[in-house]
Thiol:disulfide interchange protein (Acinetobacter gerneri DSM 14967 = CIP 107464 = MTCC 9824), 247 residues
Amino acid sequence: MKIHNLGLIFASISIFLSQNVLAETVKEQLQKQGYQFVKQIDAPQGLTGWAGYKDEYPSTVFISNDQKYYIVGDLFDKSNVNLTEKAINDHVKTAVLDEVWSSLEKSKWIQDGDPKAPKVVYVFSDPNCPYCHTFWKQARPWVDSGKVQLRHIMVGVIRPSSKAQAATLLSAKNPEEVFKLYNLSEGKNKVKEMQNIPKNLSDQLDENAKLMDKYGFYATPGIVWKNADGEVQSQQGAPKDIAKLLN
């Protein structure tokens, strides 16, 4: 997964006047606002530079040594080399992608396959998505062998009925079995729409949709996994070479 494809790199420079500098440092203020400092980096004279991120959006921050100002944005050298991009790739990318993976783990999903299977694949899935059924069918040899587990992050984005159907699937007594039977029918056995979705379940589905949008998926299935080197990868739509993804 390339961070720039997820919209995680700041494109502009903003300069902010820090406040309450007598009570705390600029760095402490930024930390309270949720900024995660990962690595101190080289900076122009009079500034201290850091590479880090906030809400999974990486950036570089340059704090004036007099603690009056800070700059968030890209730093270039005289040869027009983007030093911020290098700092993010060298120091922040792994931390951000670890947080992305953690966010997926905490989302509301349906287990598909052995929970102990070594390879985990997250799939943003809509009940009315025919390509989701295609991917589910394609993945059977790997799932049935116990090598791969799919975690279907349910969303309701295709039709007005999708959210209510996703709620029905998630609230079933045995979501895994109901989801399996639904996919075996290739979606022909329509899932009933839940009436009056409980607020907590509705909120969970909304959060799933926000994650899908945040990570740059505009349609389902949106697939996220780790390759053999442990690097997070992503795929929009059912893959043409599923073996490459699941092996």
Summary: The chain has a mean pLDDT of 88.
